[in-house]
Amino acid sequence: MFEKEEPHPNTPFVQEIDYSTDNPKSGLSKSMDLPDEEPDRLSNKLWQYDPSQDQWKERAPMQYSKYRFSAVVVNSEIYVLGGIGCVGRDKGQVRKCLDVVEIYNPDGDFWREGPPMPSPLLSLRTNSTNAGAVDGKLYVCGGFHGADRHEVISKEILELDPWENQWNVVAINVLMHDSYDVCLVARMNPRDLIPPPSDLIEEGDNHRRQR
């Protein structure tokens, strides 16, 4: 049975970040109910949804109004990377591609600046993200070096270790497309993904009986 949730205050002009306080390392996804064309007005607002209360609450705003940014959760904090935007509230000022990294602390409800990316980047589409986190490190895969669909697609994978606070290029000339999402998969032993051979099961059962 489906239940209707409280609508977002800014729908349809919203970009969502899925963040779980119970398991902050579980991952992130984002979506935008907008076409790829640039919207008339950008926002720097942040809203938090509480499922237990079915309520939205406005939190501390970002420094930049933006869209087509990537976002990811690392060490219980939200990293917002690049995008197209302007400083402060959007009042019609000139927009530009950003190399800015903004980091949100949910416990303290505040933003701080992170190390700028090596070059301005924006996500390839409004409904995709090209960032993810593995083992406490942040990775950005590709992106656009410009707001025009004909601008250069980055073929680099960037890595940020929050403790070192420095970006590194960990892969170059990677095959990239103009529409994709980054999906990070848990590192598992292949034998845990498929049923073990019958002789291995019998051997394990015999070992348990002997014990």
TrEMBL record:
It comes from the Eukaryota. Keywords: Kelch repeat. The keyword Manganese does not apply. The keyword NADP does not apply. It comes from Cricetulus griseus (Chinese hamster). Residues 1-41 are annotated as: Disordered. Residues 18-29 have a biased composition (Polar residues). This is Kelch domain-containing protein 6. The lineage of its organism: Eukaryota, Metazoa, Chordata, Craniata, Vertebrata. SMART domains: Kelch.
